[in-house]
Design a protein that fits this description.
CATH superfamily of the largest domain: Carboxypeptidase-like, regulatory domain
CATH topology of the largest domain: Immunoglobulin-like
CATH class of the largest domain: Mainly Beta
Low-confidence stretches: none
Structural class: alpha/beta
Oligomer: single chain
Largest sheet: 4 strands, mixed
Number of strands: 8
Strand content: 25-35%
Number of domains: 2
Shape: rod-shaped
C-alpha cells in the first residue's frame, strides 16, 4: 500500500512533468511562429548614370546641346550640355528589373544630330561622348 509521502511524490512528479512538457511545447510553437530576421521587402536596384560630353570636330565643347535619353524602363528625359559640353542623367529603376536599353540622342541647331542605342544595368555608370558635325562643314561650295 502506498504511503502518504509516496502519493505526494507521484502527484508532485506528474505536475512537474506536465509543466515541463507544456513549457517545451509552448516554446516550440512560439519560436516557430516568430518573424524571420532580415529584409522582408525587395530592395530597389541602384540608379544607372549615363554621362558624357558633346563637342564639335575641333573638340571644342558645345554649350546648350540638347541631349535626350529614352530608357525602356523609365520616362524619357532631356537636358542641355553645360559650358564644358557635359551632360548627365541619373536613371531610377522600377522595383523589378536591373537591365534595359536606352536610346541617347545629341543635337544642336546648326549641327547634325547623333543617336546611339545600348544596354545598361542597374548601379553602373556609362560614358558616351558625341562629336557633332556642323551643317556648314558639309555644304559643297557653290559657284563663285
Amino acid at each position: 500500500m502506498a504511503t502518504k509521502k509516496t502519493i505526494q511524490f507521484i502527484a508532485t512528479h506528474r505536475t512537474f512533468s506536465f509543466t515541463l512538457i507544456a513549457y517545451v511545447l509552448f516554446s516550440i510553437i512560439f519560436f516557430a511562429c516568430s518573424e524571420e530576421e532580415g529584409p522582408t521587402t525587395p530592395t530597389t536596384p541602384q540608379p544607372t548614370t549615363v554621362e558624357g560630353t558633346v563637342y564639335d570636330k575641333e573638340s571644342i565643347p558645345l554649350l546648350g546641346a540638347e541631349v535626350s535619353i529614352r530608357p525602356s524602363f523609365a520616362p524619357a528625359e532631356t537636358t542641355l550640355s553645360d559650358s564644358r559640353g557635359n551632360y548627365k542623367f541619373v536613371l531610377q529603376w522600377p522595383d523589378t528589373g536591373t537591365k534595359g536599353s536606352v536610346a541617347l540622342t545629341a543635337t544642336k541647331a546648326g549641327y547634325y544630330s547623333k543617336t546611339d542605342s545600348f544596354v545598361v544595368e542597374a548601379g553602373k555608370t556609362y560614358s558616351k561622348s558625341y562629336q557633332l558635325t556642323s551643317r556648314s562643314d558639309t555644304i559643297p561650295p557653290g559657284p563663285v
